[in-house]
Amino acid sequence: MTDLDLRLARRAAGSGDELSAILSLVNAPGLITFSGGFPAHEIFPVEFVRELAADRLDAGAPVALQYTPTEGLASFRDALATWIKASQGLAPDALMVTSGGIEALQLICRTLLDPGDRVLVESPTYVGALTAFSGFEAHVEAVAADADGLVPEALAAALATGPTPKLLYVIPDFQNPTGAWLSTERRHALVALARRHGLLVVEDVAYRELGFTGEQRPSLWSLAPDVVVQVGTFSKILFPGVRLGWAAGPPALIPHLVRAKQNSDQCAGGLGQWLAESFLRDGRLDAHVARARATYAARWAAMSAGLTKHLGTAFHWSQPGGGFFTWVTGPPGLDTAALLPRARELGVAYVPGTPFHAGRDARHTLRLSFSATTPDEIAEGTRRLGLLLTGATP
User: Between the CA of residue 105 and those of 28, 46, 288, what are the distances in Å?
Assistant: First the structure.
């Protein structure tokens, strides 16, 4: 039999399976999962989708069930642009629809990256982005971040050496995996550095609408639409069952992303765009997001209480103001990856920290997601996690 491993392209041979491992735990029986960043299914707008299907689908079928333009349905892009302006204070000059946020990242990589190009990321950062960048053979470099997000001085130091990076990837709002919220002062400093150095910033706003208090800080794209391309998704704020996202950015860039999409899936699904447009035009998104914020705030409160009760003083965790995640740091010598089999025996799941870093070992860290588990499940899950981690503490 031919050994296909010998024929794999470098980008395929080097790709990880962390995302597949996380997704495989969806609805796993007997398991309390703190692993994936899954939205709470209890708040999915089931009744609204049922009403649409019953009352409007016959008339909407030629749009909802048909192929769409590669850049997205014009009516949906108009509704989306209106919502973006209401949320961020600026209407995009160039906007396209994507099949989720991860596809937008893939299109950016396909359009901009050559092997060996420098890409800067926060440390730690979203594992899916690291996989995308490494899949296109970029040279990924970590920039220091803390509880207030990316450190501008560290970014300035990275920009002062070597060739100009092709792009900087950043999640300013309730970051994955740490929950950090980039301060307003740092947002201004970051875009000023980008303009000074001709750096393209990729801003991922997956969790922007999900602050527990509803407070928002200016998006990087609204501060500097000339040097920022914004990647968004409806997976976290509506539901992920239809893969739907967007990219808004410089008018010189978006048409190239549209062309790249022609060689990808050709177009995002019409049904998802039709559903989302109906949701937006009926004015239902604000109320839905408010419910989501309250749900996730209550679940974070349960997670915080559980970690405080069941983890000792050797452990520390981030204090997110929104989103889905907290980042746990244990004592040196702890190996969270090695503990995964024992975690499965105890019926609890998490994601070890090392895959979220570009070229750095972080075995004593882990990411916990509180979004898809109820407060009662969180109470029991943190008890099991405490048994696991405190029992393994060196």
Answer: 28, 29, 26
